[in-house]
Amino acid sequence: MSKQPELYTIGQVARAVGVSARTIRFWCDAGVLAPTGRSANGYRRYDASAVARLDLVRTLRQLGLSLDEIRAVLRGHRSVAEVANAHAAALDAQIRVLRLRRAVLRVVAVRGSDTEEMKQMSDLARLSARERQQIIDEFVDRTFAGVAPDAPAMGIAQRMRVMPAELPDDPSAEQVDAWIELAGLVADEEFQRRVRQMVLAGEQATPAEGADYRAVAEHAGRAVADGVDPASAEGRRVLDRIVPPATSAADRERLRGQLETFADERVERYWQLVGILNGRPPFPPTVPAYQWVIAALSAQT
Questions:
Q1: Global confidence as pTM
Q2: Would you say 297 and 243 are in contact if contact means Cβ atoms under 8 Å apart?
Q3: N or C: which end of the chain has fewer CB within 10 A?
Q4: Which of 152, 184, 201 is the last residue of a domain?
Q5: Is 85 domain-assigned?
Q6: pLDDT at 53
Q7: Based on the structure, what is the number of domains in the chain?
Q8: Using CA atoms, how far apart are residues 268 and 129, in angstroms rounded to an integer?
């Protein structure tokens, strides 16, 4: 006669598996796993195989699987690997959301934002890649409307559209802040008009003569850093290194007009923010150097 397998009470199984007897009853009542049998008094009994399966149920529940998914695994309808892969992907998405929330909260803490601004920042940060790209595309479309498709300016338009497919899995507060600032910038009607003015002016302008643009960053940038007054004698000497002294007054005036049209801190900020979002190294601002040249041309002409 074969030996009957040893059966365990629900209390013994609960201690072995590490969950409460109440939890095991709930799992059984939910159809996850039936007891092996019952005692003469109607109490549930479990053999070693059932204990092992209950231990697997506990593990899968700790990993976040639903009872429906666990039933499918135990009945052979789905493998543990398939379910684990699906849950790993879901956890990845949850982790990205949590990291994004953390970054938003850090921005809120730094800015000292109120409730309304915090909600706006959270809504902007949670936009999908497609929704973020649509915001930028609509801005570029409005700005470059009417410009010929083969015009040089359309190359700039294409570069202005470049957004990362996703914010990084672990976005820094700087990257979240950059996206929030960029979204606010392109929504500003004055900024839209300013960029369009630059685009249309660029289509019609011819380069002004008499300027060494490569020298602006070197000499005017140093003058800004050193606090040189554009109207001073030292300012004239710096300007002479950038604009040849023999440049006519008319060309100087035309140069000053072009610089005033194209040197804009907010437009430069747009490129800085796009660079931050795309993970590119930050570049130092150049507009202050151009503004110094504008001031020197006004004072020295």
A1: 0.60
A2: yes
A3: N
A4: 201
A5: no
A6: 85
A7: 3
A8: 23
